[in-house]
Design a protein that fits this description.
Layout (H helix, E strand, L loop, with lengths): L1 H30 L3 H30 L3 E2 L5 H14 L5 E5 L6 E4 L7 E5 H6 L2 H16 L2 H27 L8 H43 L2 H12 L36 E2 L2 E2 L1 H13 L1 H8 L6 H9 L22 H30 L3 H26 L10 H5 L10 E12 L10 E4 L4 E5 L5 H10 L8 E10 L3 E10 L2 E4 L2 H26 L1
Parallel strand pairs: 2-4, 9-11
Antiparallel strand pairs: 1-2, 3-4, 5-6, 7-8, 7-10, 8-9, 10-11, 11-12
Helix pairs in contact: 1-6, 1-7, 2-6, 3-5, 5-7, 5-8, 6-7, 8-11, 9-10, 12-13, 13-16
Length: 540
Amino acid sequence: MKKNLLGVSLLTITGLYVLLSAIIILVTILLHEPVIYGIGISIILLIIQFLVSPFLTDISMKWFYKAKFDKDIPDYLKKFIEEVCNNEKMKYPRVGLIDDGAPNAFTYGHTKNDARIIITRGILELLDEDEVKAVVAHELGHAVHYDMLFMTVAQLVPLVLYGIYTMLSSHDDSKKGNSNNNDNNYGQLIAIIAYILYVISNYIILWLSRTREYYADSYSIEITKKPNSLASALVKVGYGLTTSTNSNGKSAAAKSNALGIFDSKTSKSLVVSSYDNGEISKENIKEAMKWEQWNIWAKWYELNSTHPLISKRLLAISQRSKEFNEEPYIVFDLNKEESYLDDFLLELYISYQPMIIFIIGLIISVIYLSKDNLKLGGISASVTLILSLLSSIIKFNRRHPNKNYNKTNVRNLLSEVKVSNITAIPCALEGKVIGRGDPGYIFNEDMTIQDETGLIFLDYNQPLFIINKIYALFKNKDNIDQHIKVKGWYRRSPVPYVEIYSYEINGVTKKIFTYPLAKAFYLLGLILSVFCLIFSLIAL
């Protein structure tokens, strides 16, 4: 397994550096630019970042997440880590514990011999011993595979490519006065190529990161020889499907780092807790998997993520169960009733329609103005603003359907397939606030609630950033353990969450003002644009 991962990593990194070398040679030969100095600076900065980053993360963990290092952990876990370290001939990692009921685990450091593994109290409370070992083995796999080092080396390529792009862009600007300058023409072409390769290399690195996640899962399976324990841990942490609670009834899911059990962008909170007769319901797992398996947006989000979709990891793990005399943890056998392509294309159109209309209208207006036709240019600009605002209102209303806030629960929301960042479902939930959206983080204003079926992340978003942070520091902690009734809009992007419209705690109802202010802004802009059009027509 290690040899396969090493081969894939070396081949990928070699390919990236071949592309980078080709660009460097082109710049050197055609433009006579000493880009080696810029590359040298980039390498030095990246090395400094690599060396300093773990220590800065240590400080962040201690100050903002209240993590305590070298604190006692259960004997079974300490013994397990010692056994793995002895087998791998690596130093025992520093283990940090965050006193939060949300399950989370991640690792960082330079190499396997100075790795830090962070776990939360929720990992120890919500998972059984085998599941805890499986999660920690996954994190140890990142250290054993030198993922921190390999990803740092890979990330140098897009960094330098973007540097070449910006350098040549400024290089071209300084030579615009000479239209016959061959260097300028070459510079423009190479700048475009460098930027294209920069984008491509970023996606290659994301693919490499997702690949290494699969290998970390495989490492956990090989070490524990219990693939179903890893699968059930992923379900509990990734989908929030759990039968366990701590003494306060808390159960949550948390933010994760790039080398964590999940991607922080896709797992800020976790979503459903439901079981039958004390066991996790496989039917609920399948319901939770539907959106990732069928909705086209899920594929797009995965393409831009450092981690594979949870459902794909579960299926990959389940395929290995028979190797260890276990039944496959999950078999996704639900029938797809439609393609969902029409919904995706409609949402894609609605999402980009305002920008497309604005760009086309702007081009037309500029053409009229360049011909000194100020009147038609003004009319064109007014019509463009009106159409752009109308399409923006359509998009806004699709994201905020302000009617029928029907009472539901987390499990029912999670089973919805026709939902995205563009298409929202108005809903009313009732439950208990069990923590912040980013557990333990003192500057996080969001909340996580638990109802009778599970957990979901609540997006608290007032119009001004400073208001959110003041609320996070001084008010949000008072909501913990309080009963809450909330109305809002359920979306996935891909994390399932509810944007708060209003909520009630202790009989006091509070509203978020972002929605009415945004609606007023659009209406005011539309009215002003109509007046501009009328004046332009009168002038004509």
